[in-house]
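The methods section describes the discrete structure representation at length, but only in general terms. Since the whole study asks how a given chain folds, the encoding of that fold should be made plain. An entry of this sort, consisting of the sequence and the corresponding backbone structure tokens, reads as follows:

. . .
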Amino acid sequence: MTTAWRSLADRAHGGFAGYPIATIAFYGPDDEHATKVAVAIVPNDDGEVRDMERWLVEVGDVRDDDAIGSAVLELVRASDARSIVMVDRILGCPHEEGIDYPHGATCPRCPFWAERDRWAGLLAEHPVVSGEGTMRSASRNARPTLVADLRHYLDNDGTLPHLPASVLNLALHQGAIVEWMTMVLPGDEIVVTNVYCRKRPKRRRCRGQIHARLQGVGDAIEWACPVCGDNGVIYGWEGSRWDRGPSPLPDDDRQLN
């Protein structure tokens, strides 16, 4: 990782420091090589993107390209972003459905993702639940995906610090999704939670009920509102104040079993 990318990663590890937020997402032909980085600037908690830029490389990895890292860093600085969200995993194929290949098809240039869910993160069209019970993309009213790490909301001892009301509400909303999913533990099935949408389109509360999927213990929770398209991916939930899953056995008990 180059100097510019290390600087961005260090700021991302610092957690939430207020809006605007710069979201940085990587895409590639497989889950090890990033050939595309997408950066979006979210000025406030309504989730609307103000600026969006993409950089691609034909060979190599964008995370090893100092010129691209410096350009991303300059965009973040120019936008006065106070927080950075940068997920260290590759979020899917770098090619865009409906642009680089037909809607509903798989990317012919990225066979690695053909049998995997293409969760394209911050720049994807929002996921909804299809009649077959799978997450798919919808082209209308597309919203950026909110990628969040719950640890960024909490102090070192796992407690909620004094946060602005809008940020606190966002943390509690995501925490409620985690509570439901870790109590139900539905595996990788999509379920309808007891959490209602937080959005207020046209100043009226959205009536959508959140659909979610737990990718696996220690992995991401994907969620979406099927009505307005608000959606996100939650990391860092395991062991948090909202995790209602089974607690790991102490070492002594594990040895006895």
